[in-house]
Write a structure and sequence with these properties.
9-stranded mixed β-sheet; 13 strands; 271 residues; DNA-binding; 26% strand; alpha+beta; two-stranded parallel sheet
DNA sequence: AGTGGCTCCTGAGCGC
DNA sequence: TGCGCTCAGGAGCCAC
């Protein structure tokens, strides 16, 4: 599933391939995945892409009149760059057609969403307004992290997944971050020591950056804009490895459910 | 306010 | 071969 590193990989592909291009047409093959009010597609066309931003798992294409196309891929969404007249992609939901190519949004499960908004209301309409700091924002400090977790009663994994605490971490990287921090995912936040919290905080950025370098984790559905898989799945310690041997100590990895999410950890390495 | 559980959705994998 | 079940889970929503 696309988390911060996968969305960043896509964003950097898009910066390379569609920046500064004119958006000529928007074709919607499944209206249920598009949030648009007042038939805005007509407002958007013939505008140029001014910038391409990412916050957490949200991607925004900002047009030169400050209209914004916001995209969230959720579980199975894909963004594929294709020739202008490319045939209908399997599970295609929408297509943005540019001067030189097109950007196809395909999604098996239809959890993904596209919002067409103007600058004034885009944060409210898309939910971006509820996000915490982006996990790779250099301004996101240990104190911010600690403060966001203050007085919380739940288990640590839940808050790593909470986009309003820190934005961009999903189920794969939450398990990896906790493994490398040697903290059990079901530990109550209130029982974590200062140094455990620091470990977690200091593992977030390097793990995400390594995954970006590997062009993302393709565990099931994720592919980049060329429909190619990433290779970070080859470097995972725990996610998807329940029942197998811990790569550090050889013990059998445990698989449990936390907050409805499959969770893998090592009882021996993680306290 | 915080939290747990339900919902959306479809394909893969499995047992019988 | 095919049926039914379970699992995958991001995030909005609702009840408590």
């Amino acid at each position: 599933m696309p988390e911060l590193p996968e969305v960043e990989t896509i964003a950097s592909d898009l910066r390379e391939k569609i920046s500064k291009q004119k958006l000529e047409k928007i074709e919607i093959s499944d209206p249920s995945v598009i949030n648009l009010k007042n038939n805005r597609t007509s407002v958007l066309v013939q505008k140029y892409i001014k910038e391409i931003n990412r916050h957490g798992k949200y991607l925004s294409l900002v047009l030169d009149d400050n209209q914004i196309v916001t995209i969230h891929l959720r579980m199975t969404g894909r963004l594929i760059i294709a020739p202008k007249n490319a045939p209908l992609e399997k599970y295609e939901r929408a297509r943005l057609i540019f001067e030189n190519n097109s950007l196809i949004f395909a999604d098996i499960r239809r959890f993904g969403k596209i919002w067409l908004c103007d600058e004034q209301n885009h944060k409210q309409e898309t939910g971006v307004c509820r996000l915490g700091s982006d996990a790779l924002d250099p301004k996101f400090s240990f104190n911010d992290f600690k403060k966001a977790l203050k007085n919380k009663n739940g288990v640590i994994k839940k808050y790593l997944l909470s986009q309003n605490i820190v934005a961009g971490i999903g189920n794969i990287y939450a398990d990896e971050i906790l493994f490398l921090s040697k903290v059990c995912p079901d530990r109550k936040v209130s029982t974590l020591t200062e140094s455990e919290l620091k470990n977690i905080y200091h593992n977030i950025a390097p793990i995400l950056k390594k995954a970006i370098k590997n062009r993302g984790t393709s565990f099931s559905d994720y592919v980049d804009t060329k429909a190619e898989k990433g290779k970070n799945q080859e470097e995972l310690f725990v996610y998807g490895r329940g029942g197998q041997k811990c790569l550090q100590c050889g013990n059998k990895l445990q698989k449990i459910r936390i907050e409805g999410r499959g969770t893998v950890f090592c009882e021996n390495c993680q306290k």
